[in-house]
Amino acid sequence: MEVNLRRVVGRGELYIETHKKRNGSYVNEEARSIATRFSNAGHNFLNSGSVESSQLKEEVISLREKLEPSEENLKTLKSVMLAYIQMKEGHIPHELGVMFGNESNVIDEESGQELPTSQGGSSLDSNFHGV
Predict the structure, then answer these.
(1) Least CB-packed of 2, 11, 96, 130 within 10 Å?
(2) Where are the domains of the chain?
(3) Quick one: where's region Disordered (predicted)?
């Protein structure tokens, strides 16, 4: 509804719209009675979603800021794990490469062949080959 109207919709307005039939009549007498109370409560109640929306947006921003350090820690942990596995095994199994989004020096476990990468190898490879 908000997408179609291109604005924030309040609870009262949402209730009214979702309790009407296609012909515009209410689904039952109780829905009509409640919708009338919403309408009589005034325009502020119908558009109270904008205040709620602002509060939700602020909360989402706050949660994203709290999540950022954890995401960085996760990236570091993935890199360390991949480096350790490559050091111990000499390659990264295909499943781990796909799961960690790092497909350089990935070996197909069934064939034992190194899989071609779209990235042209890792940054470590470029350091060793003087690229």
Answers:
(1) 130
(2) 1-47, 68-131
(3) 110-131
Tell me the chain's radius of gyration from C-alpha atoms.
28
**Residue with tokens 């904008």, as numbered in its chain:** 50
pLDDT, one tens digit per residue, over 59-106 is: 888 888 999 999 999 989 988 988 898 899 888 888 887 887 765 655
The DSSP annotation for 31-51 comes to HHHHHHHHHHH-HHHHTTHHH
State the sign of the Cα–Cα–Cα–Cα dihedral 90, 95, 96, 97.
positive
Q: pTM for this structure?
A: 0.38
The residue type at 49: G
The CA distances from residue 4 to 7, 8, 9, in Å, are: 8, 10, 11
pLDDT higher than 90, residue 27: yes
